[in-house]
Structure formats: structure tokens, C-alpha cells
Amino acid sequence: MPSGDLVQSPVREDVHPLVGAQTLPQGGEILIEEVVERDDPHRFSIAPGAGGRPWHPAVLPQSVEGSAARLVRNTLSSGGSRLANAVLALALTPILLRRLGPAEYGVWLLATTLTFTSGFLNLAELGLQQAAVRLVAEARQRNDDRSVSEVVSTVVALFMGMGLVLGVVVAAAAVPLTTLFSVPAGLEHAAVQVFALVGAQIALDMPAAGTLAYWDGSQRFGVSRGIDVGSRLAWTGATVVSVWLGHGVVGIGVVSVAIAALTLAAQLAALGRQPDVTLRLGLVTRASVHRLSGHGAPMFGLRILAVLYTQMDRAIIGVALGTVAVARYEVAYKLHAAAALALGVAPAAVLPTAAYLGQERMERLRALFVRGTKYAVAFGLPVAVAGTLYARPLIATWVGADYVDIADEARVFLLYPAVAIGLVVGQAMVMGVGRVRPVLLYHLCSVTVNLVVSLILVGRMGVGGVIWGTVAGYMVVLVPFHRLFFRSFAVGPADWLRRVVLPNLPGLGVQLAFGAATLAWAENLGQLWAVGLVALASWAASAATFVLVGLSPAERSGLMATVRRQRTPAPG
């Protein structure tokens, strides 16, 4: 879903309202040291800039956009949205399992592998969305509103056209897809209808995704993250009512199309209220398409690998083991996904920030990389550790004792977010500064290992074999990725250990001790909310230890000041 802060005033957010060489309040730069340029403010002209708007006579455009305060606010917005969606998904899973049964629920899960938002059809993005995010960030750094409008108009128009074509193709392929996935005889007609409805949903989801270029590229995440959560709430509520009334998996498909239409309308309405961007077909030219596709080619390679990585498990299990096995896999996957939501929080805000800063600001990029990774590990790793510690009681109280035997596979699955959390900030940053090709190569190696190991082990170990393939694929690229980050941001391994790893060890130790002391008790609680509170307490113990022991007094004061600043509205 698109993301951003709806600004109804014509005042740009990247212009600080105070006159003079103002900086962010103390503590506002905990992630990026000295991100705000402190050049002579008088070098900025008061004449209209490239975007046709006058610059403030004594304020730097980077006083907010590209700053740590903006980065932290965007990270919190992205994190809140992802957390809300994860909670809703976890709450809905046992309801669908019980009302639909494993076989019909498996049909729905296979249908989601065809969607644009979370399935194989996300390949149709062609890398254009992330390329557009970067181009918008660069255009805003130049104060060039026309280029912003040209990029956003082009990506929305392209996605609208591709969405219509792909929607028709998927709907026409509904019957062959039903045969491919070996859908049980009693569910074949429903499966055909659901796959056809997915085609309609694709035609709506793609242009909606195009608006993300503006929100992420301008580093404004609030409004569309709100639309995302609102649409997910509406979808969840309508889905529960639909299955409760007995409409089954087809009812879920109808609800999905209706919510996709409302979401597209809301996103376009929000975008239309922005003073610095215009959607107009006349801005879509051969040159704009060529520029966007040129930047998108490397991103497309990454998109292919990302989609394969996230969807190949369900596809392999669906073909080799059937729809019931897909439903069992989903239990382990949902627990893994709850921990993995932290993996997408920081990168969503970091990539446009890195693009805005540019490769030439190496000191600021180095500070963002080291501190950003340290905080990502501090607050993300404990989520995976908590899931690993309490996997068995969480599954038993969530979906029932029939699925407790998948707990060991879920623990293996949680190795992925536990390890990946240390890479996500660096990966987003190297992409933001244009070093996409080595990232593409490493992911190609990772997906290849994943595929080969999964195919070898699925016949011997079932669902667990596919999960081991996913973990193995990521482990092989750990060292190459770290070497790339160290070279890109001039950070040595010893400095990395001292500034990132060591500050996080006390919190990890405290959480493991807490888990050892409470695990037996948690297994006898019998209620999901109670087990969840124990898991949350283990996370809090780790996070608190990091803040109190892992941070220096100056860092701790800066963190607290920045968090307090998020309670007040941003200027503009």
C-alpha cells in the first residue's frame, strides 16, 4: 500500500518554518549524525527554484527531509502499519482454519500466490516502483516538482495498463490453475471463481501500488500507511462476516475485490490533495518511460528473486504435498512472518533517505548504517527470539493442539528473521545509493540454494524440508553481504563488532535467561493473550537492557528525546 503524510497546506514539509540556521532539537539525530547540512544559508536564492516555488531565504531544504527526525517518524509509521497488519493476520488465521477447513483454506492461500500485492504477480512491478521511489527522492532534493509529477504519473499509468492486461490473463487461466494445484474435486468450482476474482483484484492493486512512488520518495508515510491499515481492518471484518455467513472462499475473493477498489479510490484522493504532485496522462512520454525503465532494470531482478523467495515454498508444497500441507505450512509461516515484520520497517524509510543524501555524504551514510543497524538488531532480534522460545505454547493457544507438531519447524523458520535483521538497513542503503548489482548477485545465489535444497528435502522431510531450504539460502550470503556493506560505508569488522554486536549482547542474555525461567509456566497458561504477554515481556526485558546497558548516556538521552519528539506534529 502507498504511504505518506497528507499535507493539506501548500507549505512544503522540507522547508523548516523557522528563520535562521535552525537545526533539529537535541536528540533529533540519533540515527544520522549531522545529516542536516550546515552550509551558509544565504547561498540559497529566494528566486523560484526548479519546481517553480520560492526557496525560504534562510532555511536549508534538508532541515527536515533527509533528517533523522523524519527517518524515525517514518520508521514508526511503517512499523505501526506492519504490526497492525501482522496482528490482524494472526487473529484471522485460526478463524479461517476452523470455518473453512484446511483444504478450502489451502485453496485461498494458493490464490494469494497469484496476487500482485503478495504473490508471484508482484513480478509485474518490473522494478519500476522502487526505481520511481529513488527518482522522486532525487527530484525533491533538486526541488523539481515537475519531475516528481512526471515520475509518479508514468508509474501509475504503466501499472494501470499492465494491471488490466494481467487481470484478464489470470482470470482466463483460472481452470488450468485449478488443475495445476490438484484442488480437491469438491472445491474445483470455487477455486476457479476465486482465481478469476484474483484477476480483477490485480487490475485494481497495480495502479494503487504506483502511488507509493510519491509517498515513499517524499519520505511521507502517514496517510497511506493509515489507508493500508484501514483497508486491512475493513477486509478482515468483512471476511469474518462472509465466512461466518457460509460464503466460503469465494466470499473472501469478492470481499478482496471490493476492498481493493475502495483502497485505490482512497489513495488517488489522498494523492490529489498534495500541492507538489499532479497526475496527468500528458506527463507520460517515451522519455519518462525510458528513464524509469532504465533505473528499474536492476530493481526488477531483485523483485524477481524476492517474489520467488517468498512464494516458492507454497508452490513447492502445493504441488508436491497438496493443499492441506500448505495450510500446515502457513501456521509456521505466520509465526515467522510476525517476527519478520521488523525486516521491512527500517528499509522502507532508509532507502529514500540514502538516495536523498547521496553517495557523496559518506560520513552521514556511515552513521546511518552503523546506528540504524544497531537499533534494528536491538528491537528486531528479540521478536524472533521470543517466537523461538515460546513457539509451542503460542501455536497451541493460537490455532490448537492439532498444529503443535509444527513448532520445531517454526523455530527453524525464525532463524531467518533473527539473522536477516542485521542486514536489512545496509541492503536498503546500498540500493539507495545505486549499488544494486552486487545485491542482485547475492540474492540470485540465495534463491538458487533455497530452490535446490527445498526440492531435495521436500520429499524426505515434508514441510520442514522446504523451511530448511529457505534458511540455508539466506545463510550462504551472510558473509558476502557484510563485506559489501563494510566496503560501501568504510566500516571495519572490529568497529562493527564494537558498535553493533557488543551493545546487543546484554539484552540477548537477559532475554534468554527470562525465557528459561518462564517457559514451563507459559506452556501451562492455556490462553493466547497470556502467552503473548509473557513473550512481550521477554522482548521488553531485552529492549530495556539494551537501552540501559548497551547505549552510552549520550545515546540514551538522544533516543529518549527523539521518541518524545514524535508526539508533536511535524512542521509544515
Task: Explain what the structure shows.
With 572 residues, the protein is mainly α. The chain has one domain (68-565). Helices cover 71% and strands 0% of the residues. It contains 23 helices and no strands. The protein starts with 67 loop residues before the first helix and ends in a 7-residue tail after the last helix. Residues 1-67 and 354-358 have low confidence and may be disordered.
Assembly type: single chain
How many strand segments?
0
Provide the succession of SSEs: HHHHHHHHHHHHHHHHHHHHHHH
Number of domains: 1
Spans where pLDDT lies below 50 across 5 or more residues: 1-67, 354-358
For the sheet with most strands, the description reads: none
Query: What is the overall pLDDT average?
Result: 75
Gross morphology is globular
Please state the CA-atom Rg, rounded to the nearest Å. 24 Å
How helix-rich are the residues, as a percent range?
Answer: over 70%
Termini distance?
A: 24 Å
Structural class: mainly alpha
Tell me what portion of residues adopts beta-strand conformation. Answer: under 5%
Q: How many helical elements? A: 23
List its salient traits:
572 residues; mainly alpha
Spell out the blueprint of helices and strands:
Elements lengths: L67 H45 L15 H14 L3 H28 L1 H7 L7 H23 L1 H6 L4 H23 L3 H25 L13 H35 L2 H18 L4 H13 L4 H28 L1 H8 L8 H7 L1 H6 L3 H9 L4 H25 L1 H13 L2 H12 L3 H9 L3 H18 L5 H23 L2 H13 L7
